[in-house]
Amino acid sequence: MKQITSPQNPFIKSLVLLQEKAKARRQSGTFLIEGQREIQLARKGGYEIETVLFLPDMISEVEVSVLAGRQIEIIEISRDVYQKLAYRDTTEGIIAIAKSKSLELTDLKLGNNPLILVAEAPEKPGNLGALLRTADAAKLDAVIIANPKSDMYNPNVVRSSVGCLFTNQIAAGTTDDVIAFLKAKNISIYCATLQDSTQYHTQDYTTPTALVVGTEATGLTQEWRDASTKNIIIPMQGEIDSMNVSVAAAILIFEAKRQRGF
To answer: CA angle 114-117-121, nearest 5°?
Structure first.
């Protein structure tokens, strides 16, 4: 079995770039996954694992072989190397190199009555991860990111989604392309916005539906409000007029799930 003990190894340096630079992830078509659960979910979600690196002090070679599957390159690394690559404070001694998936809208496989979450330009990887966790909890048909600001394979997204990056069907595109896609599929568009809105619980989400949320700072762009089947709002009874985007999305999503009988 191959062993790497130096953090200055050129291969390890290339993996550090994968952690730190979206450009490196795009150019290589790969990204890093850290943690046993995350690797299991990635494999279950159809992600191709190329290589697994492990720290024998934390996880055995037998456990790694079971987790990684057959025909996967396995590399034993030193603690210095592991600490160079590990992104989380509490980890499990295993890091995988995986191939990125296509995020094209045309690759989405939707049923006859989909329920979709659309998030326009989420600014923070942590918010994007939280949205993916919510989408997984509700078992949505797809999550679409319009005008993405964060690289989907940013380690913060992988970490904050606790593996839900791999359990959701995900696509990304420009706002114009996403709107055109939804309209072509005859999917009703319900936009969470303050302007010209009706209370969210008064609408019917039992037919093909896209629930659209914007940024916490500026909300949705005018293009979405113009394309909307109906603008919806969550009644706020306190002093502020907005809430965390993942919380707002959860409220809307589970109302739709309630109407659909869960």
So the answer is: 145
